[in-house]
Specification:
By secondary structure, this protein is α+β, with helices and mostly antiparallel strands. The chain is built from 10 helices and 17 strands. α3 links the parallel β3 and β4.
Length: 299
């Protein structure tokens, strides 16, 4: 089998490059063919993944959620789709955590060499593909508006500081949603869409019991129906994503959403688009390597 390691040299605290010699040696020891490519600029890995998909069996991605999203979009625009494997080296690493992959490179490579990939859903917001989350409103801009210098210096704490700042801002925007032949209108402070129960480094165990291959995507609409809305939002997140009475929880494979043109949408932690959107789920669209525990729990 032919593997292409695609890595982002500035992910997390920029330490991944020091592991390259170990990884190359592990591939030699197991008689697997490995090529390596270092990202040169934003969206570079999307281009390389699209152009090289026909030449490799597996793309091994080293980076954070944004890096994985780049490669995913390259794969989804290619006719032949290599399997996806992950070596997490970002800050939050939500995607890797969801599929049971940690920063221990030896254990991650053991999964790659000894497990069989599984089929996983891929979601889409307008023209962009994503794996696990789409969001708008409060807290949704923190992951991509944050200073790279602060992130490198403080790590995950930098996200917490930015989140506290964002909580002081005023959020209120109109939403009209079509889903499952139904219509819903309300005012929101946040829309959080997930295909699992983790986001922003937090496990939302009470958000849902969804699977990564069920062909469905879940939306939670946090409304502005009552006073003390910031406190109520935080109480929901602290309690593992427990649904509040005034909020709406939707499950579907497709949503058509109308909103104001200044509403910004986040996909897998990166800025995606503004305004009206369509979210849809492509069932079992890619193959991915996951841990045995995640295979039992999430598939």
């Amino acid at each position: 089998m032919k593997y292409l390691l695609l890595y982002n040299p500035v992910s997390g605290r920029s330490k991944f490059k020091s592991h390259l010699s170990y990884i190359e040696q592990e591939f030699k020891n197991t008689n697997h063919e490995l090529s390596i490519y270092e990202s040169k600029a934003p969206k570079d890995l999307l281009r390389v993944a699209r152009e090289e998909s026909a030449n490799y069996d597996v793309f091994l991605v080293a980076g954070g959620d944004g890096t994985i999203n780049e490669v995913l979009n390259g794969i989804m625009h290619a006719e032949k789709k290599p399997a996806l494997a992950i070596l997490p080296s970002g800050t939050a690493n939500d995607i890797a955590a969801i599929i049971g992959i940690n920063k221990n490179i030896k254990k991650s490579l053991d999964i790659l060499f000894n497990e069989t990939p599984v089929k996983m859903d891929v979601n889409q917001i307008n023209e962009q593909y994503f794996i696990y989350t789409a969001a708008s409103g409060i807290l949704s801009r923190v992951s991509y508006d944050i200073s790279r210098r602060h992130l490198k210096k403080y790590g995950y704490i930098a996200y917490v500081i930015e989140a506290m700042k964002d909580l002081t801002q005023e959020y209120r925007y109109p939403i009209k949603i079509k889903y499952n032949d139904k219509n819903l209108s309300c005012e929101c402070v946040m829309i959080l869409g997930l295909s699992s129960n983790r986001v922003g480094g937090m496990r939302l165990v009470n958000f849902s019991s969804s699977k990564l291959n069920d062909g469905l995507f879940e939306l939670r609409l946090f409304t502005r129906a009552k006073s003390l809305w910031r406190f109520r939002l935080l109480s929901s997140l602290i309690r593992g994503g427990k649904q509040l009475r005034e909020d709406h929880h939707l499950v579907s494979s497709r949503y058509e959403i109308e909103t104001s043109s200044n509403v910004r949408w986040n996909a897998d932690g990166e800025y995606s688009c503004n305004g009206n959107i369509i979210i849809q789920t492509h069932k079992e669209a890619i193959s991915i390597y996951v841990s045995p525990k995640a295979k039992k729990k999430m598939f």
